């Protein structure tokens, strides 16, 4: 099956009606350990007229060794970008969906800063559920799009930025807890990760509220 290359067709059409767009995508929703991350890219008409960054795809389709360079190009292409986080403790306290909203809200605030008005933007959110509006402190106009990370270059850029940032954090955390091999599994339910949990229990970075013992092994 041919890989679908993301384009700016939808963004260019939507920018006829909106001053700018804020594209969002999450990484780490299904992990057993570590935070959830949401990438945000701000795109205006000038950015949408430029070419899609070379090699840009949904982060799952970009080889791991190439992701940092693709993320760097995506970050240079977008007028503004950021990654927002919600910790494993926050996930335990408020649940994964509200934690996603919290991370998304933080990403929007960081990306917009003083230069971009989030209330004047259309927020493009990968998926079929708006998890950010109920959490963000100001009103937002959100459009959820299934497979946006595959089809929309702005969302694919957010996806790669979040993936690279979260993977780097998990590699850093693995130095403190090497038995769990987070440098390889990034906190997801690999066989080695599950074995380490059985031997050593949960760390402070695990999502203790989850039924981790029952989680399926992914790889």
TrEMBL record:
<keyword id="KW-0540">Nuclease</keyword>
<keyword id="KW-0479">Metal-binding</keyword>
<comment type="function">
    <text>Endonuclease that specifically degrades the RNA of RNA-DNA hybrids.</text>
</comment>
<dbReference type="GO" id="GO:0005737">
    <property type="term" value="C:cytoplasm"/>
</dbReference>
<dbReference type="GO" id="GO:0046872">
    <property type="term" value="F:metal ion binding"/>
</dbReference>
<keyword id="KW-0464">Manganese</keyword>
<dbReference type="InterPro" id="IPR001352">
    <property type="entry name" value="RNase_HII/HIII"/>
</dbReference>
<keyword id="KW-0963">Cytoplasm</keyword>
<dbReference type="GO" id="GO:0003723">
    <property type="term" value="F:RNA binding"/>
</dbReference>
<dbReference type="GO" id="GO:0032299">
    <property type="term" value="C:ribonuclease H2 complex"/>
</dbReference>
<dbReference type="GO" id="GO:0004523">
    <property type="term" value="F:RNA-DNA hybrid ribonuclease activity"/>
</dbReference>
<dbReference type="GO" id="GO:0043137">
    <property type="term" value="P:DNA replication, removal of RNA primer"/>
</dbReference>
<dbReference type="Pfam" id="PF01351">
    <property type="entry name" value="RNase_HII"/>
</dbReference>
<feature type="binding site">
    <location>
        <position position="26"/>
    </location>
    <ligand>
        <name>a divalent metal cation</name>
    </ligand>
</feature>
<dbReference type="InterPro" id="IPR022898">
    <property type="entry name" value="RNase_HII"/>
</dbReference>
<dbReference type="InterPro" id="IPR024567">
    <property type="entry name" value="RNase_HII/HIII_dom"/>
</dbReference>
<keyword id="KW-0255">Endonuclease</keyword>
<protein>
    <recommendedName>
        <fullName>Ribonuclease</fullName>
        <ecNumber>3.1.26.4</ecNumber>
    </recommendedName>
</protein>
<dbReference type="InterPro" id="IPR012337">
    <property type="entry name" value="RNaseH-like_sf"/>
</dbReference>
<feature type="binding site">
    <location>
        <position position="25"/>
    </location>
    <ligand>
        <name>a divalent metal cation</name>
    </ligand>
</feature>
<comment type="similarity">
    <text>Belongs to the RNase HII family.</text>
</comment>
<feature type="binding site">
    <location>
        <position position="126"/>
    </location>
    <ligand>
        <name>a divalent metal cation</name>
    </ligand>
</feature>
<dbReference type="InterPro" id="IPR036397">
    <property type="entry name" value="RNaseH_sf"/>
</dbReference>
<keyword id="KW-0378">Hydrolase</keyword>
<feature type="domain" description="RNase H type-2">
    <location>
        <begin position="19"/>
        <end position="219"/>
    </location>
</feature>
<dbReference type="GO" id="GO:0006298">
    <property type="term" value="P:mismatch repair"/>
</dbReference>
